[in-house]
Design brief:
Blueprint lengths: L2 E4 L2 E4 L2 E3 L2 H28 L26 E2 L8 E11 L2 E10 L4 E13 L5 E11 L3 E11 L7 E6 L5 E3 L7 E9 L6 E8 L5 E11 L5 E12 L3 E8 L15 E8 L15 H13 L6 E7 L3 E8 L2 H9 L14 H12 L9 E8 L10 H14 L2 E8 L5 H7 L6 E4 L3 H14 L6 E7 L5
Parallel strand pairs: 17-18, 17-20, 20-21, 21-22
Antiparallel strand pairs: 1-2, 2-3, 4-11, 5-6, 6-9, 7-8, 7-10, 7-11, 12-13, 13-16, 14-15, 14-23, 18-19
Helix pairs in contact: 2-3, 2-7, 4-5
Length: 468
């Protein structure tokens, strides 16, 4: 390695280091360049650069879009997955009035919107639109939330299909309050067949107090089909505290909620006209087989169910009021016999329905139970004399409007099954028993149809407004 000096130059291994004066000039030039860069940058900021304003209707600063993204609280719509509709349905509240409910899923973790425009559209079975309702709701993050619109008037038209259209929202913001913030601690459904009331206790797990919490309760059957829904608003929900939230319905829902958890009050209307002895025998038939089948049917009822008995021929009478002591009701059925005076009498189906409806209106009816009438006959309506079939149809219509489910059983070949199908509130509730041997099977089918196995699911969802 060789080193020597030559005047002001320094050589090293055959190379030459430049003089210190050169490096001083380089430092001066670099300093001037940096100063110039600062001057240029300052001039750009002063005259050309605009920081993220987030509210001026222009994209500036580090905004990813117009007034969104970057330093702005609002999240750009193109960074958000649009919500999807899980299901939508309209539920009758009173004649001509419906509640529309949709379950909408927000796929965005930690992101919600304070303004989600929507439109419900209700159509009849022919595809004609019969009602619309528009609104704006909020959609919290992380989950599925209901959208509820109440008291939609349809006049005399019945909606067959319901649709929900969601308009794009431009207001998406970071949000933390979702379904997980609340715990539903209890649900109690009362008076399902009179003045339905759902009492719930909901606990706010957060320390934060929440205002104007919208809470929606939807009842599903065991198969997951939505049956009915109601809404309640909690003006102020304290932090780390429970709140009792009540939901009500203006009409009975026991007929709608067919879970076996809801008890059933059943009245058996048994034809004791003279024709029920026509097959003869000892004991007489078909009455003996009919009473044995009815006895077996009552034995299938649950302990919370109640049973009553109406008999009819030329007239009708209540022979056993609604009672949960099934052994007593079965004893009454076993002792029934045809009055000899009715051997040439008529069949008054209309009065039988009226007597049953009157019994359901008494205090013996369980206010939490559905009302069911099972009517057995081997003939046609022949009483009262003027227009017996019209009399029966009018009575059946009034009973259905009172929330009574009607099953009909036609025994033998002398019945008018078309007429009995009109009496029943549903085609599937009309049975034909060509022989006495069919009766027990049919009664078991009726018993199975009274309720669905599995508990009803009551979904209670609190929704917290997303802050602007």
């Amino acid at each position: 390695m060789r080193r020597h000096t030559d005047g002001w130059r320094i050589w090293y291994n055959g190379g030459m280091y430049r003089s210190w004066a050169f490096w001083r000039r380089a430092q001066y030039i670099a300093g001037v360049a940096v100063l110039f860069a600062f001057v240029v940058a300052g001039s750009y900021v002063a005259f050309f650069y605009s920081p993220a304003a987030c509210s001026d209707g222009r994209q500036n600063g580090d905004e990813r879009g117009v007034d969104c993204g970057g330093a702005c609280a609002r999240i750009c719509a193109f960074d958000v997955m649009p919500p999807t509709v899980a299901w939508v349905q309209a539920f009758r509240v009173t004649p001509g009035q419906y509640n529309a409910v949709a379950y909408v899923e927000n796929h965005n973790p930690g992101v919600g919107t304070p303004e989600l425009p929507y439109t419900f559209s209700l159509y009849d079975e022919r595809g004609n639109i019969i009602a619309t309702r528009t609104g704006i709701t909020f959609l919290p993050p992380d989950g599925v939330y209901p959208i509820f619109e109440g008291r939609i008037m349809t006049g005399d038209k019945i909606p067959a299909r319901t649709f929900l259209e969601i308009a794009p929202s431009l207001e998406w913001r970071a949000a933390t309050a979702g379904r997980a913030q609340f715990e539903v601690q209890s649900r109690t459904l009362r008076d399902a067949d009179s003045a339905p009331r759902l009492d719930t206790v909901i606990y706010n797990t957060s320390l934060e107090e929440e205002d104007d919490v919208e809470v929606i309760a939807t009842i599903f059957d065991a198969r997951g089909n939505a049956l009915t829904s109601s809404q309640s608003i909690v003006p102020r929900f304290a932090g780390r505290a429970p709140e009792q939230v009540v939901f009500t319905w203006p009409e009975p829902i026991a007929k709608t909620v067919r879970s076996c958890e809801v008890p059933t009050d059943v009245i058996l209307a048994i034809d004791l006209s003279g024709s029920m002895n026509n097959d003869g025998g000892t004991p007489p038939q078909p009455i003996s087989s009919a009473l044995a089948a009815a006895d077996s049917f009552i034995s299938l009822l649950r302990k919370d169910d109640r049973a009553g008995v109406v008999t009819y021929a030329t007239g009708a009478a209540l022979v056993q009021g609604l009672d949960s002591v099934h052994t007593k009701t079965r004893d009454v059925v076993r002792r029934l016999a045809i009055d000899p005076k009715e051997e040439t009498g008529g069949t008054n189906i209309g009065d039988a329905i009226k007597v049953a409806q009157a019994e359901f209106a008494t205090a013996r009816h369980n206010r939490n139970a559905r009302k069911v009438l099972v009517l057995l006959t081997d003939g046609k309506a022949t009483e009262p004399g003027n227009d017996p079939e019209e009399h029966a149809l009018a009575a059946a219509k009034a009973a259905r409007e009172a929330g009574i489910t009607i099953f009909t059983i036609g025994l033998g070949n002398g019945v008018d099954n078309t007429f009995l199908a009109t009496i029943a509130d549903d085609e599937t509730h009309r049975f034909q028993a060509p022989t006495r041997a069919d009766l027990d099977r049919i009664y078991r089918s009726v018993s199975s149809a009274l309720c669905e196995e599995g508990a009803a699911v009551i979904d209670v969802v609190p929704k917290i407004p997303v802050e602007m």
